[in-house]
Amino acid sequence: MLWSRHTVYRDRAGGVVIRAEHVQRWISLASSGRRDEILLRAGRILDGGTTAPARAETVVPLGAGTGELATACRRLLAETAAAAPPAPAAPGRTERSEKPKRPGRKGKRMSLASWTVLACVVGVVALYAYSAATTGAG
């Protein structure tokens, strides 16, 4: 689920950034500069896909379990969501964009390239059959 709805990458400083375009938020995990600590930062994704500066951050001990780390991440994302008004949807974007259908056309038609490939395949099969028939009969 994480990979299908989120983008994960490394930033320039070597930290890990997780972007969630569907909720317009990002969160990053990086070294805090102190031994055995992780710096968590969260912020918004602005219109156009750029990231806003972090709105919330905290430091978590490196020895903390995944449950404590997940709790801290959820808290930061909740603070980020509460601090900012909901981002409006991009104009002109819909859940699923479909091409307008042409009137009078039923089903899909094969393109010229598809017909050419099909003709080549039929020609190769016919050539093989002819070659097998002539060499086998002689």
What does this molecule look like?
Helices cover 35% and strands 22% of the residues. The protein is built from three helices and five strands, in the order αβββββαα. A five-stranded antiparallel beta sheet has the order 1-2-3-4-5. A hairpin with a 5-residue loop joins strand 1 (7-10) and strand 2 (16-20).
Task: Write a concise keyword list for the protein shown above.
138 residues, alpha+beta, 5-stranded antiparallel β-sheet, 3 helices, 5 strands, elongated
Q: Which secondary structure elements does this structure contain, and how are they paired or packed?
A:
Layout: H1 2-5, E1 7-10, E2 16-20, E3 25-31, E4 37-44, E5 56-61, H2 66-83, H3 112-137
Antiparallel strand pairs: 1-2, 2-3, 3-4, 4-5
Summing up helix and strand content along with how strands pair, one would put the structural category as alpha+beta
Low-confidence stretches: none
**What's the helix count?**
3
Write the H/E string, N to C: HEEEEEHH
Report the helical percentage. Answer: 25-40%
How far apart lie the N and C ends?
63 Å
Question: Overall pLDDT, averaged?
Answer: 76
Radius of gyration: 28 Å
- Sum up the overall morphology in one term: elongated
Q: Strand sequence of the main sheet, in spatial order?
A: 1-2-3-4-5
Largest sheet entry: 5 strands, antiparallel
Oligomer: single chain
Number of E-state strands: 5
Strand fraction equals 15-25%
